[in-house]
Amino acid sequence: MCGIVGYVGRAEAAQILLEGLRRLEYRGYDSAGVAVVDGGNLETRKCAGRIVALARLTKKRPLSGCFGISHTRWATHGKVTDENAHPHFDASGKLALVHNGVIENYQLLKEDLVRNGDTKFRSETDTEVLAHLIGKLYDESCASTVDVYQKKARLLGAVRAALQKVIGTYGIALVHANVPDFMIGARRGSPLVLGVGKGENFLASDVSAIVAYTRDAVYLNDFDVVSVERDKFEIASLGGESGDHPVSKVEFTAEDIKKGDFRHYMLKEIFEQPDTVRDAMRGRLSVEECTAKLGGLNMTPAQLRDVGRIILTGCGTALHAGRIGEYLIERLANIPTEVEYASEFRHRNTPMTPETLVFAISQSGETADTLGALRESRRKGFRTLGICNNVASTIARESDGGVYMHAGPEIGVAATKSFTSQLVILTLIGLLFGRMRNLSTAEGSRIIEALEALPEQIEEVLKLSDQIKAIAKKYADVNGVLFFGRQFNFPIALEGALKMKEITYLFAEGHPSAELKHGIIALVRPDLPSVFIVPDDAVFSKNLNNIEQVKARKGPIISLTSGNGAKQLKEIANEIISLPDAPDCVMPILTVIPLQLLAYHLAVELGRDIDKPRNLAKSVTVE
Ligand code: M6R
Q: Which tens digits make up the pLDDT trace of 386-441?
């Protein structure tokens, strides 16, 4: 949540900072700001609203200068107002700071500042307290200094001293009007990356903000503090140790993060799924041995065989993938598997036997709750593996190994392609563990064939987009949507409902089909359609009974089916979406796509802001 960008170089900073913010807008979009220094003058523009409002403001009142910082906000402390937008300033107004995270002890720090001087606060944010604290420490240490080298060292010292007092999380970038061509960044719990250019350097919450300028990046670790100039940078930990900070090549290019011909990122990402599903399994299938090869797990065959229990943890869509993973791993490998909300798991005392293996599932690899769960399980000494898309993310770096999704950047706030990639990877994990135990070669081959068929089958499903659009138009004035499925498709009902809520703002719930009669049926009425995910599988006839129960109460029925399902649904369902067939454990990778499209088309029909839905942010780096 919140995105920060910083620049020191020879070009006009404002344009680069604004462009960077546009790339980070998915991280938060309730207000934005930019501060640029020119010849000892610090100038700022900031306002509530989207980056486009800030761009208008800076067009009206342009900013000039070759170094500065910027921010797009997802409010935590303080309302969405111009005053609460970042950057925030110290008492002198010469130091500007942007922040992503939460300063938990800001009240105490604020009381101290007020007690010890006449500090006036202009905003309600926790961030402003940190700006004042650094500014005060700097002013005290710098009173008699004119030498620019000493100023830099003292500003750095003030940042270090202030951060020693902070409890909470931060990714920060700051500049000072009196310290030319110099920027400081630091992180703890919120991501921060240094972009290394030629005669220019950058700071950003995410490389997508700077990849148009450089693909050389240094991913900072927690407690790193970096001082950045045009032609050099220096990184040391808060404790003063220098450590190892390799420069890595960013995997994707600026082209990969463009919308292309698509109207929205979400639609682009839905349509990328034939490729992303292929990429998730590329080089990971062994046809000869009827198994999967997942070297990134960093486990020997004996260690793989000794796993006695698996915990899958994550949030939101990633958690739904975990729920399918539970069915998958138990079916294919017969290993007891539990799914835990990351936010609950990290604080509760889940009984864990010594042979437990934990998977943290996260597209961004930065979700605070999932990271907290990973750290807690590692602290207890359990092997903890990541299933991440962002290869440089904190979860990817802090886990004992894992499997990358290779889905490319996902910009739409509603997760789509990352979900199907997670499902492919969880199938591979089930296959690998299964083949280390009792899964036969015939069963292993059947799963591999089903996986290999997926990209083409997804192409087929995507061709249904127009049919689904027509359904969305027809149901555009409903009051909500219910989703039902059984077994592997129960989590798909949850995911369908989550997509619907996120981008249409309609009330939506997902349930196991059979739960209908235990209470939910009371909701059924003509303006509340039920989406039934009922492929032609072993539980089809049970599902049919539930559909009849809704029909009898005049609830409209939208069905997703396969094989002979359509024939049997003809007289009962109002809408039938026919999908290609696949083994039940792989089917969710196909059934979820029409639900992504349904939510998308309905949201378009309702005029929603698809890629930046109300109140949400893509990467949730606060608890
Ligand atoms: O980056 P992560 O996969 O850890 O994100 C987890 C959730 O915040 C995320 O899936 C969220 O629920 C999405 N907006 C769902 O579309």
A: 999 998 899 999 999 999 999 999 999 999 999 999 999 999 999 999 999 999 99
3 state DSSP class of 155: helix
pTM of the model: 0.90
Q: How many angstroms separate the CA atoms of 505 and 609, rounded?
A: 10
Assign 144 a pLDDT band (cuts: 50, 70, 90): low
As a whole number, the mean pLDDT across the chain is 95
The CA-based diameter of the chain, rounded to the nearest angstrom, is: 87
Sheet of 530-533, strands arranged across: 507-512, 480-485, 530-533, 557-562, 575-579
Ligand 1 interacting residues, C-beta cut-off 6 A = 314-318, 362-364, 367, 370, 413-415, 498, 502, 619-620
SS (H, E, C) 103-115: ECCHHHHHHHHHH
CA of 51 to the centre of ligand 1 (A): 23
Residue 93 CA to ligand 1 center (angstroms) comes to: 37
Active-site annotation holds for 618: yes
Predicted local distance difference test score (pLDDT) of residue 139: 84
Q: In testing the pocket of ligand 1, which one of 190, 264, 315 has its CB within 8 Å of the most ligand atoms?
A: 315
The domain made up of 3-257 has a fold known as: Glutamine Phosphoribosylpyrophosphate, subunit 1, domain 1 (3.60.20)
Which phi-psi region, left, alpha or beta, contains residue 39 (left: φ > 0; alpha: ψ -120 to 50)?
left
Answer whether CATH 3.40.50.10490 is correct for domain 464-613: yes
Fold match, 259-462 / 464-613: yes
Contact (Cβ atoms closer than 8 angstroms) between residue 562 and residue 578: yes
Confidence of residue 146 (pLDDT cuts 50, 70, 90): confident
Q: Which listed CATH number (3.40.50.150, 3.40.50.720, 3.40.50.10490, 1.10.10.10) goes with 259-462?
A: 3.40.50.10490
The structural domains of the chain, with segments of one domain joined by +, span 3-257, 259-462, 464-613
Instruction: Find the 178 Cα to ligand 1 centroid distance in Å.
Output: 41
pLDDT: which is higher, 183 or 259: 183
Strands (E), 250-336: 285-286, 291-292, 309-314
The pLDDT tens digits of the residues spanning 249-304 come to 998 888 888 899 999 999 999 999 999 999 999 999 999 999 999 999 999 999 99
Q: Is residue 97 pLDDT above 70, yes or no?
A: yes
- DSSP per position, 331-370: HHH---EEEEEHHHHTTS-----TTEEEEEEESSS--HHH
Closest ligand 1 atom to residue 619 Cα is 1
2 in active site = yes
Q: Are 407 and 282 in contact (CB under 8 A)?
A: no
Paired residues of 337 in beta bridges: 310
How confident is residue 145, by pLDDT bands cut at 50, 70 and 90? low
The C-alpha atoms of residue 475 and residue 327 are separated, in whole angstroms, by 32
Per-residue pLDDT of 157-179, as tens digits, reads 999 999 999 999 999 999 999 99
How far apart are the CA of 504 and the centre of ligand 1, in A? Answer: 17
